[in-house]
Amino acid sequence: MTHKRKIALSFRHVLKEDEDHLDVEFWLSKSPSERLAEVVRLRWLYFTSSGKTFPCKIEKVIFRRKLR
Questions:
Q1: Tens digit of each residue's pLDDT (9 = 90 or more) over 29-63
Q2: From CA 23, how far away is CA 56, in angstroms rounded?
Q3: Is 2 strand, coil or helix?
Q4: What is the rounded CA–CA span in Å between residue 35 and residue 43?
Q5: Residues 35, 63, 50, 30: what is their CA dihedral angle, to the nearest 10 degrees?
Q6: Superkingdom of this entry's organism (predicted)?
Q7: Is the alpha carbon torsion for 20, 23, 29, 34 positive or negative?
Q8: d(CA 3, CA 47)
Q9: Could you tell me how far CA 7 lies from the centroid of its own chain?
Q10: Alpha-helical runs (H) found in the chain
Q11: 53 CB contacts (<8 Å, ≥6 apart)?
């Protein structure tokens, strides 16, 4: 029994060495507010998928070290 697909398969073959460059180009084409919104979305996804509660604020942590 064969079924006919309702949605056609589509893909784009990208070489591994080009992938990083394309990622950088993509994110540089977005506004800073769009990039920040995506970071917040990914943080929310990480916290909720691991069973943790989403923190309201990002904790500011600074490490200082002396330069030689």
A1: 999 889 989 988 998 898 888 888 877 777 777 78
A2: 28
A3: coil
A4: 12
A5: 10
A6: Bacteria
A7: negative
A8: 39
A9: 26
A10: 16-28, 32-49
A11: 47
Q: Are 47 and 54 in contact (CB under 8 A)?
A: yes
25's tokens? 């180009």
What the block records as the tokens of 44 is 């929310």
Taking a C-beta distance cutoff of 8 angstroms, is the pair 19, 27 a contact?
A: no
Query: Which two three-digit tokens encode residue 59?
Result: 């904790």
- Give tens-digit pLDDT for 12-32: 777 777 788 888 899 999 998
* Amino acid in the structure at residue 68: R
What's the CA gap between 13 and 22, in Å, rounded? 12
> Could you give the CA distance from residue 5 to residue 30 in angstroms, rounded to a whole number?
34
